[in-house]
Fold this sequence. Notes:
By secondary structure, the chain is an all-alpha fold. Helix content is 17%, strand content 0%. It contains one helix and no strands. The longest helix is centred in the first third of the chain and has 8 residues, at 2-9. Residues 9-46 are annotated as: Disordered.
Amino acid sequence: MVALLSACADDATIKHHGPPPHDPADYHGVPTDDRPPMMIETPPAK
């Protein structure tokens, strides 16, 4: 088992270097709402 894991770790054919992948130009991503949540006022008791 250890030999198998060390073989995977030493595999030079797997490339982890280079520029990161980029999104397409028309991709706008997930909208991020960084505002704090608004407190909803509780209705007055009847």
